Predict the structure.
Amino acid sequence: MYDFHTHFIPKDVMSWMEENRQTVNAEWITKEQNKEDFLFINQKWGFELKKAFIDLEIYRQEQEKANIRHSMISPIPQLFLYDFPKDVATELSRVYNQSLVNLVNNNSETLSAVGTVPLGHPDQAAQVLAEAMNGGLKGAIIGPGIDDHMLSDRFFEPFFEEANRLKAILFIHPLLCEDPRLKRRMMPNLIGVPWETTVCATDILLSVMIEKYPDIKILFAHGGGFLPYQIGRLDKGYEQWGMVSSNLQGPPSEYIKRFWYDTVLWNQNSVDFLVKTVGEDRVVAGSDYPFDLCVWPPKEVSNIGAKSLIGHAVK
């Protein structure tokens, strides 16, 4: 079984964080005696730095226990550093990517990876993506946009043009929602995170980016957020409003089948609905391990989706 949504932080990345802790305002804070320290960057989106994030032996042991034979590792969203200057974000991206290149080249049977890029600087992001993929990475994990820029904006064209040329996998992973209405009861994570994916995925679908960049393989985290569940509403809008239908060659329910989705949904009925909506060739197993809200072990699905995404499958 594959795990297409899993995170790891190599040693060189942690060393960089230690050396640049003042630059990125990194803080290691003890919150509970029975837990590891929490890492905060710029006082945002702290997370428990569990040993499985940084100890490869522990990480691999847990993968083996869960019968996962191949993991596609992603950098963690907290270290995208989109809030920081170009040189800082670029430097950590390159350190992270080279660390992952070294890791997967030494463990190619069981590990592959996508890298990270300084997305707020699209020309630079394109260059960093090319470097990462030339080293052997499959593509990149990126957030749902930067500030007021949606991913369909022309602002990001240099990056997407290069990703299309390279036939990259782009794993679109949400950042923590900062909607002020959600500042209670863990709602920024519970519903804010999938909401960010929903907004991004809907924008990409309706903008028909996939017509412009047909060789990019887009994988949405957390089962595509709420989009699959509301695809009927988009179809109705397509029938009703020219502003929805003008760019599309068919209903949204057909376009939704041209992306990939992980199974980080915590509910078998939800996974079954996703497969029925988009097709089993577009659904891949994922866990979000080792974050607190991971699906562990991941929901097993057909390997057809894995084969369509990366060209081969494991038994």
In short: The two ends are 6 Å apart (CA to CA). Residues 2-310 form a domain with the TIM Barrel fold (CATH 3.20.20.140). The mean pLDDT is 93. The chain has one domain: 2-310.
